Amino acid sequence: MNALRRLWYRYSPQLIIGELLEKRWMEPIVPFTLMLLVFAAFIVTIPSYASIVQLQQLMRSFPEQAFVAMAMALSILSGGIDLSVGAVFAMADFLTLYFLQVQDWPLPLTIVAVLAWGALIGAVNGGLIAYAKTRPFLTTMVVLIILRAAYNKITGVYAAELAGASVDSAAWDFLGAGFVFGIPINMVCLIVIGAIAHLYLTRIRSGVHIMAVGSSRKAARHAGINVQRSLFLAYVLAGMLSALAGLLYAARQNSAGTDTGVGWEVNALAAAVLGGISLAGGRGTISRALMGAAIIFLLINGLVQLGTHGSLTSAAIGAILLAAVAFNVKFVKNKGKILQKIYVSPSLVEFSPPASIERGGGTVFAENDRLKDSEAIALDKIEGPEDIILDRSDNLYTVNRNGSIIRFLAPNYEKREEFARIGGRPLGMAIDRDESIIVCVAGMGVYGVRQDRTIFKVTDETNRTWYRFKDDSRLWLADDLDIAADGKIYFSDATTRYDLSEWALDGFEGRGNGRLVCYDPATKTTRTVLANLAFPNGVCISHDGQAVLWVSTWLCRIYRYWIAGPQTGKLEIIADNLPGYPDNINRASDGNYWLALVGLRSPVYDIAMADPSFRTRMVKQIPPDEWLCPGINFGCVVKFDDNGEVLESLWDPGGVSHPTITSMREHKGYLYIGGLENNRIGRVPLPGADKSWTGWDSYWGDKTKKGAASAVAHARADHVVSA
After folding, report:
1. Pick the CATH number of 375-701 from 2.120.10.30, 1.10.3210.10, 3.30.230.80, 2.60.120.10
2. pTM
3. Which letter, b or e, does each residue of 689-698 get, where b requires 16 or more Cβ atoms within 10 Å of its Cβ?
């Protein structure tokens, strides 16, 4: 039963719904659902509505209306409106037939001329709106009136000639009635051009500029965008889309009646609104306009097939549109609130009582005063030194909250200088063979700084998890890293669901949102080594170089993942049920490892972690600043060996100097201490430690000399013992 409970919370439907609502493509869920419901309703009520013949007929009749809706959407997305789309469509229909049947123009020339006509009218609209600063509504309405009057006049003049004319062209017949793999050719055109239009507005610079202008002309202007040119281009493209619709309509119907295109601008406007495109501009997509157009088209077509009176059809469509738009607006307005209530999805985490930390309690974790009188380096000269590292010249590097790496020069560390300004929030660091500083930057990825202070990007993405709705290819919270002997960089991406400002919420969930990632400089590729990890944090290559040690902060565990040797690929827990939340790991001079505990577990929070339903109710009913969260307010440093056995601990009682210890580095007989919320770097002497040992030599020094020195030391020790 408990296994089923654990499985339920691990793959909670709430998690899936939360990730779905977070996706931008979920915003048009209301029109998409309505489109499916309308189609399903007519399948049930109209015989053979879903037959191949009927579907082909629907696909042949829909594209012209869809193109006009796309034209309207484009003008609205730019921050305006184009009421002339229906009239441009009608005139393009007439011009196509006139050029082909009366003037005997070849089809390619006719297509170019009709599209140029649409572009010309769009240029008139765009020129007046963008450069003459006229109002889009009034401008396009006047153009509508003029074009409609001209159309009525000219079709009356050429009605007889058009009625008796015909076109002997296989290409023209194919354009009007042809199929490609069973799909009408005009529907194929819609699919292709719709995809191009979507990519244009989301990937191509000029299209993105149109969206930016629609969102805020002032902001777009300040960003260096040519607002007038973008507006002008939007109306030119809208005119061409309307003209293309007229051309396809002429090929299909081969007629130009007096009612052609009448009211199409209203339907196009309704389609845009129904699809969720904001009339304020800048918000929406072409796909939304197509969904809105499909709903209106299906409603009209279905109600006509059911024999509904024209006035009732209009009234029914109006009522459905009104209800759908109201619901859509309500959904979009409250989607953020819904997401806030369900996005945090607690999982089941069960702890056993940890070892006692009581002073004098007899355990290795018992509180002591070993950090109480630590020397304060850089007091009030640094903000949040989450990690520290020293180079071969004893210079001290640390990260600062403002996005920079700060260097304090040896030997007294009084001189402070900004070594590099990377941006973001730098976290864990490592130093490579060339003494470049490699650093994890929250929200940005992994970067490096050479000794000449040039900054370079190592990686900012990894392979995407194919079965997740959320795109996790980007590195969300690169936390700590270490470098193997072959140059591969292993680092933790602590969570893919929360950014740095919300990292504690990941602990509130307690689920496997993180991963261990590897960057290979030889191939310049990044891949996820281990996924579904509960806030993987400190990373350290073992002394023998055959394994990666890493911690799960929220599960209070230390893991070992073998990267070389006979156990390659094996993952194992070497320490479990720690009394605090582990953070960074680093090597010690005696072949063991230092580990920072950033905070202490509490019985109340352990109980809460075993009751996901309690935490779920807390999320829904209590403001976030009143939630029960992990106690990240007290820290200590422990030493452990390759078997995960904790050997000793160092405490600062009450956290007076080091309230949140996140890292520590041993260097030449001293232990340097950093913390996420600290205003200093602590330093304490380590009795009996090797005063010549440095982290850089441990990774990149001469291993032969080290081995010889170690053998001599052991021989001397044996001689002393025997004596």
Report:
1. 2.120.10.30
2. 0.72
3. beeebbbbeb
